[in-house]
Design goal:
There is one protein chain. The protein has about 300 residues and is α/β, with parallel strands linked by helices. It contains ten helices and eight strands. The strands form two sheets. Strands 1-2-4-3 form a four-stranded mixed beta sheet. It is globular.
């Protein structure tokens, strides 16, 4: 025990040598370069003096493109009835498409087209009397539902169901299918061949009522085989209820759209460009024949 204690005491008595201090950090290269040289005085920063600018001469703004003036008196043609607090009017659709809204097709109500008064239903003039009841019943359903806040898509579907009921009662499907003994075909609605183009495409005037009763209740104005599966290959259809003064514009739309889709364009893009071409010609009718010729109507 005494030996161990002595050894411990001896260890305590021997002091540990102090660690050598670390050498000073090497002088930086930049410090070496500037060592012994007088520091350069920084130049005083002065505020830039703004240059005198002479006032610019006012530039006359280009006038906006003139919009067609709408005379609402020219829209209304005939009031045919009052029903459920709504007035049903026959309107000049051609005038509406040229001066107010190119998207107005055959019929409309306030909650679909805000420019239609809330107390009115509009039917385009070419709609034949035997189809008016179907259109009115459809619009009544749409108007009633949308007035309650139902979205247009749902109201549109409900109105379509009501219209199909009325059309089935009329018996159009039975007449065109030999009372169900055969399936209806596209040729069953042909009325007359308008023209056969050099490209092999045939343009037909068709019975619009039968197309809506048998194939598609929403068919309006025109169509072709790239959009409607019931249209035979290489055919374009023009509704017989399209008035003569508007057929050229509808024809341009369908030709232009079909030609673009034949090149691989999607429907949305082809339709949008065709609508612009149609709208342009409605406001510049002198361009119509050249535009048709460019699409193969020669």
């Amino acid at each position: 025990m005494a030996v161990r204690a002595a050894r411990r005491a001896k260890k305590k008595a021997v002091a540990k040598p102090a660690r050598a201090s670390r050498p000073a950090a090497k002088q930086s290269l930049a410090a070496k370069r500037t060592a012994g040289k007088p520091a350069k005085a920084r130049p005083k920063q002065t505020k830039p003096v703004p240059a005198k600018v002479s006032p610019a001469r006012p530039v006359a703004a280009k006038p906006p493109a003139a919009k067609p003036t709408v005379d609402r008196k020219q829209i209304y043609l005939q009031k045919i009835e009052d029903i459920d607090g709504l007035s049903v009017w026959i309107v000049d659709g051609a005038y509406i498409r040229s001066h107010l809204d190119e998207k107005f097709t055959r019929l409309g109500q306030h909650y679909r087209f805000a420019y239609i008064p809330a107390s009115e239903l509009w039917l385009d003039r070419p709609i034949k009397e035997h189809e008016r009841r179907y259109c009115i019943d459809r619009l009544l359903v749409e108007h009633r539902l949308m007035a309650k806040g139902v979205p247009y898509a749902k109201a549109f579907e409900a109105g379509g169901r009501e219209e199909r009921k009325e059309r089935r009662r009329a018996g159009d499907v039975g007449r065109i299918s030999d009372q169900g003994r055969r399936l209806p075909a596209g040729r069953d609605v042909h009325l007359r061949l308008w023209k056969r183009l050099d490209s092999g495409v045939s343009v037909w005037i068709v019975n619009g009522r039968l197309v809506r009763s048998v194939f598609d209740g929403d068919y309006a104005a025109g169509g072709h085989d790239y959009v409607y599966e019931f249209v035979p290959e290489d055919e374009i259809w023009i509704d017989d209820q399209v008035e003569e003064q508007e057929r050229g514009y509808v024809l341009l739309h369908e030709l232009h759209e079909r030609n673009r889709m034949a090149q691989g364009w999607p429907y949305s893009r082809a339709h949008a460009e065709s609508s612009r071409a149609e709208y342009r010609c409605r406001h510049h009718p002198e361009e119509l024949q050249d535009r048709l010729a460019a699409e193969g109507w020669a």
